[in-house]
Amino acid sequence: AFAKECGYLPVIIKNVRGQYVGQTEMTWEKIRSILEVMGNVMVIYDEADTELGGRGAGTHDVDKRLFGAILRMMSDPNNRGKIIWIIITARPDKLEPDIKRTGRAGEHLPVFDPEGQEREEFIDFVMSKVGLSLNDFLADQKQRFLDHTANYSPADFIQLLTNLERKKHLTSRNLTTAEILETGYDFIPADISLQRQLQELLAFVECSYQSLIPEKYANMTKQKAYTQIGELKVLLGEN
């Protein structure tokens, strides 16, 4: 929707690699020529840290050549304004520095979890799917629900919504606040709090604009953030 509003055609690229010798390069050349002829396209690479490859010592030669071809296309001045690249990843630290520099994917825009009023508006949106609003809760119920979902990821809220919609379908009516609380307390999301902390800190240190940084990181130095990132990676067994 965003691409169309900007006057661009969204194109999602995935599964470029082939199993035969030379197939990957041929596939990419076809993609490149089509995109350059079309113009006004927004190329979207999701899960870019695993899809794009790189130039590391352990990288396959085919992936290195594909990565180099992508970099050349991104840097081509003839494509400026005609081909926009959207690189989506939760682990920007795993992307090669070459792709993150100015002139390629140089603007790093983080997506943080909503906080405060924005978070309540997001939860209200979830509740609206089952015919309720946070305003329908008593004050103590609302606070308990907000506290219980404090560490929910967006995916956790989607699963909670699925659970609520299932219960609504089974009862053939709108759910009461008590039933929503009961369903919420019954759902135990996977504990990925350390991974999410790491992803948030990485988003902070990679962010291109001070105005996009949440208040809780406003006074944090990047040096302190990198220290915490290192500690979290140790806890997660990444170092």
UniProtKB/TrEMBL annotation:
Domain ATPase AAA-type core: 13-109
SUPFAM superfamilies, A to Z: P-loop containing nucleoside triphosphate hydrolases (SSF52540)
Pfam families listed in its UniProt record: AAA
Xref: Gene3D superfamilies: P-loop containing nucleotide triphosphate hydrolases
One function term, GO molecular function aspect: ATP binding
InterPro entries membership: ATPase_AAA_core (IPR003959), P-loop_NTPase (IPR027417)
Entry protein name: ATPase AAA-type core domain-containing protein
Organism: marine metagenome
Lineage: unclassified sequences, metagenomes, ecological metagenomes
